[in-house]
Design goal:
The complex is a heterodimer of chains A (about 325) and B (about 260). With about 325 residues, chain A is α/β, with parallel strands linked by helices. Chain A is built from 9 helices and 18 strands. Chain A has a 7-stranded parallel beta sheet, with helices on both faces. A 5-stranded parallel beta sheet of chain A has the order 15-14-16-17-18. In chain A, strands 8-9-10 form a 3-stranded antiparallel beta sheet, with no helix packed on it. Classes of the chains: A alpha/beta (about 325), B alpha/beta (about 260). Adenosine monophosphate (AMP) binds next to helix 1, strand 6, helix 3, strand 8 and helix 4 of chain B.
């Protein structure tokens, strides 16, 4: 076993795509700052990309004491092997106690490779982190399609974990914060085995960021009926979501899918229309602040997680809702 | 040139729609639901079958699990895999993702001569999606995760669409590994004839000892696992029960709540 006392401080992976920092990175800094302060240790970030100097400063404004910057044209696009090699070398040198990575698709592709190369433990998709009395990290994560919460400890260092988006608060950026940007020499590899040829498709909607979501399920009778839900969503300043069967049938794009094999969401308000509430759907939206269910079947499992419900035909209820909200918002009838 | 060899990693998991959770005792009652192939791994197998149809070759499925996981391997053979290997041994039990990946990677080494490894995006029980990339790292081969489409395939490279927030077109040199999403295809069902044939097929069973020439067996199972579950909580169904609005005022009552909660702006 590695000597634990050699390890100190917290490292976070600052994810960027096309030169823009993913907001999860700031959330990791927020939580990382809190843990680092409690341990009385340092908080660092590792950033890989091209022309990232100014971006690196943002990480300091958001709480980092140090930013290890790998800046090179070949790091502009995500290259799994190149990213992994450079990060592994850094971690071996600076020996952080904890290493936090965002549980985005990019983070969940990268972190396991880094963990395997370091032969250390990695806990996926955590929704909470706690310190025990000895300063050990307790990592809390859902498993079994969201049906259980496991508390996990790691006996190797660094403790690695990926963290779900929108769980932790970021710090208010403070441009007067001081920190150090350390430029690292980039290790280059001739042929890494993968190459990004081009961006294929932009995401049509970023449903994970939405504050209000109106979702439709198999209670909808035809694709055009999403219009009805879209009208309600727009009225509330939100976006449309979907259960999986409708995505599979091509009624709406995958970007809208909520659930275990789609997107995890945590809006202020989630309205489920004609959705039964399967375990796979609940896994993606259970943590919404307010859940409203509209379903014709009073025994539908969705009512068990909903805060409010109306038992009825969505084709009657939704238009009435639209009418009532319009009346209150604009005073017309 | 010899034929294309694809390895598919599959795990047997409980059916999530049937499995029971004991909230009071914090345990999962695995006997409450029959085991089946992890749904995402069916997509992995289907991907392999489609590549084989195009280029010819051979598909080996490998699974680590208890002896009863044999039935999932039979299912994989019925669906068109050519060879099935079950890694089963008490010393492999209690493995976390690193120990699982190490065991699977060791088995891949022993099988040898592969061009492509395909995994599911994640399992419905472990739910980490870590095993694929970890296996790739341990075998020192490149990988692409979250593959939703294969655009081109040849003996020495793939061109795939990978969902990384936005979707990217990525070239992967072989030998390599991909993990696939549910969207990549619609898994085929085995015919009755296929099932009958698979019932009689031979499944290779390897113990820890069988892998000792390629692996350090102390890195298997619980002893090789750096992470430990210290507690499991099965959230009780929420005590706060759902407030149902009824009658002609139902919609008005609901919109009142929206106003009160400040969602109407
Ligand atoms: C590995 C795996 C991953 C999966 N991932 C996901 C995922 O990410 N997201 C997901 O959603 N699913 C996922 N699923 C599928 C999931 O198991 C369910 O099949 C799916 O969620 C059901 O969708 P639904 O609620 O829209 O349809 P149904 O279960 O058919 O429910 C339709 C509901 O609409 C109600 N209804 C009918 N007509 C009306 C009406 N006029 N007005 C009001 N209510 C009406 C019915 O009472 C019923 O409750 C996954 C499955 C597997 C195996
Ligand atoms: N015990 C196992 N045996 C074979 N393959 C596995 C096993 N565990 C995980 N896998 C593979 O790794 C993928 C990701 O699993 P997980 O990391 O558990 O979410 C699965 O979809 C399988 O392809």
């Amino acid at each position: 076993m590695k000597n634990e006392s050699e390890y100190s401080g917290i490292l976070i992976f600052a994810e960027q795509q096309e030169g823009k920092i993913h907001p999860i990175s700031f959330e990791l800094l927020g939580k990382g700052r809190e843990l680092a302060d409690r341990l009385g240790e340092e908080l660092s970030a590792v950033l890989l990309g091209h022309n990232m100097k100014d971006v690196a400063k943002e990480l300091i404004y958001h709480g980092a004491d140090k930013v290890y910057l790998f800046d090179h044209p070949s790091l502009r696009d995500f290259d799994i092997v190149l990213y992994k090699e450079n990060i592994v070398d850094l971690v071996k040198e600076i020996k952080p106690k904890f290493f936090l990575v965002g549980a985005t698709h990019l983070g969940r592709s990268l972190a396991p490779r880094v963990a395997a190369a370091l032969e250390t433990g990695l806990t996926a998709d955590c929704i909470d982190l706690q310190l025990d009395e000895k300063g050990d990290l307790i990592q809390i994560r859902p498993a079994f399609t969201g049906n259980i919460l496991a508390h996990i400890k790691t006996r190797t260092r660094p403790v690695m974990t990926t963290i779900r988006y929108k769980i932790f608060e970021k710090m208010k950026p403070d441009t007067s914060r001081k920190g150090e940007i350390i430029e690292r020499k980039v290790k280059l590899i001739e042929n890494t085995g993968t190459r990004v040829l081009r961006k294929e498709r932009e995401r049509t909607v970023n449903i994970s960021d939405a504050e209000i979501i109106v979702s439709g399920g198999r209670g909808l009778k035809k694709p055009e009926d999403f219009k009805l839900l879209r009208e309600l969503a727009e009225l509330l300043g939100g976006v449309v979501g979907s259960s999986r069967p409708l995505v599979d049938q091509g009624w709406i794009s995958k970007d809208h899918q909520v659930g275990f094999s789609g997107n995890t969401v945590k809006p202020k308000l989630y309205i489920a229309c004609g959705i039964s509430g399967s375990p796979q759907h609940l896994a993606g939206m259970r943590d919404s602040k307010i859940i409203v269910a509209i379903n014709i079947d009073p025994s539908a499992p969705i009512f068990r997680v909903a805060d409010y419900g109306i038992v009825g035909d969505l084709y009657e209820i939704v238009p009435q809702l639209i009418k009532e909200i319009k009346k209150r918002k604009f005073g017309d009838d | 040139m010899n034929e294309m060899h694809i390895i598919v990693l599959i795990k047997e998991v409980p059916d999530m729609n049937k499995v029971k959770f004991d909230a009071e005792r914090g345990v999962i009652d695995r006997s409450s639901a029959p085991g089946e192939i992890n749904p995402f791994d069916l997509n992995a197998l289907e991907t392999a079958l489609q590549i084989k149809e195009k280029l010819g070759g051979k598909i080996t499925v490998i699974s680590m699990g208890p002896p009863q996981a044999e039935r999932s391997l039979r299912d994989a053979l019925a669906r068109g895999a050519d060879r099935a290997i079950l890694l089963t041994d008490k010393r492999m039990a209690g493995a976390d993702t690193l120990a699982t990946s190490y065991t699977l990677a060791s088995a891949v080494k022993k099988v040898g001569n592969f061009d492509l490894i395909i995994c599911g995006e994640k399992t419905v029980d472990g739910d980490t999606g870590q095993v694929g990339p970890e296996v790739a790292e341990l075998l020192k081969i490149p990988h692409v995760s979250y593959v939703s489409e294969i655009r081109e395939v040849s003996r020495d490279r793939l061109i795939v669409v990978s969902e990384l927030g936005d979707a990217y077109l990525i070239e992967l040199k072989l030998p390599g590994l991909i993990t696939v999403t549910k969207d990549i295809n619609e898994p085929r069902l085995p015919t009755f004839k296929d099932k009958m044939r698979a019932r009689k097929a031979v499944i290779d069973k390897w113990t820890a000892e069988d892998l000792s020439d390629v692996a350090d067996i102390n890195k298997f199972g619980f002893s090789g696992s750096p992470t430990m579950v210290v507690k499991v909580i099965i959230p009780q169904e929420r005590v706060k029960s759902c407030q149902i609005f009824k009658g002609e005022n139902a919609v008005k009552d609901l919109v009142d709540i929206f106003e009160k909660k400040g969602v109407l702006k």
